[in-house]
């Protein structure tokens, strides 16, 4: 499942540089996560790095982009060219 940033985001800029896939960018109002690039850090780290650094806990699982661990690993392989 990809992650999403809620409207509680305070635009603190700490999440964007932590994303190994470049899935986080500045949106119109808050930062946004591109679900096509988000692997919840599967393949890179044990935990989602953006969630770890977010000071307001506004990064949650996106219910409209459900993916299994295997699907996230496959996306990681496609994005990195591994596998």
TrEMBL record:
<dbReference type="GO" id="GO:0005737">
    <property type="term" value="C:cytoplasm"/>
</dbReference>
<dbReference type="InterPro" id="IPR047927">
    <property type="entry name" value="YfhL-like"/>
</dbReference>
<keyword id="KW-0479">Metal-binding</keyword>
<dbReference type="InterPro" id="IPR017896">
    <property type="entry name" value="4Fe4S_Fe-S-bd"/>
</dbReference>
<keyword id="KW-0677">Repeat</keyword>
<keyword id="KW-0004">4Fe-4S</keyword>
<feature type="domain" description="4Fe-4S ferredoxin-type">
    <location>
        <begin position="1"/>
        <end position="29"/>
    </location>
</feature>
<feature type="domain" description="4Fe-4S ferredoxin-type">
    <location>
        <begin position="31"/>
        <end position="64"/>
    </location>
</feature>
<keyword id="KW-0408">Iron</keyword>
<protein>
    <submittedName>
        <fullName>4Fe-4S binding domain-containing protein</fullName>
    </submittedName>
</protein>
<keyword id="KW-0411">Iron-sulfur</keyword>
<keyword id="KW-0249">Electron transport</keyword>
<dbReference type="InterPro" id="IPR050157">
    <property type="entry name" value="PSI_iron-sulfur_center"/>
</dbReference>
<dbReference type="Pfam" id="PF12838">
    <property type="entry name" value="Fer4_7"/>
</dbReference>
<keyword id="KW-0813">Transport</keyword>
<dbReference type="GO" id="GO:0046872">
    <property type="term" value="F:metal ion binding"/>
</dbReference>
<dbReference type="GO" id="GO:0051539">
    <property type="term" value="F:4 iron, 4 sulfur cluster binding"/>
</dbReference>
<dbReference type="InterPro" id="IPR017900">
    <property type="entry name" value="4Fe4S_Fe_S_CS"/>
</dbReference>
């Amino acid at each position: 499942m990809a992650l999403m940033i809620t409207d509680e985001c305070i635009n603190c800029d700490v999440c964007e540089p932590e994303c190994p896939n470049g899935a986080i960018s500045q949106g119109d109002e808050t930062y946004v996560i591109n679900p096509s690039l988000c692997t919840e850090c599967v393949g890179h780290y044990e935990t989602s790095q953006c969630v770890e650094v977010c000071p307001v806990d506004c990064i949650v699982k996106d219910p409209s982009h459900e993916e299994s661990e295997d699907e996230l690993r496959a996306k990681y392989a496609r994005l990195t060219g591994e596998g």
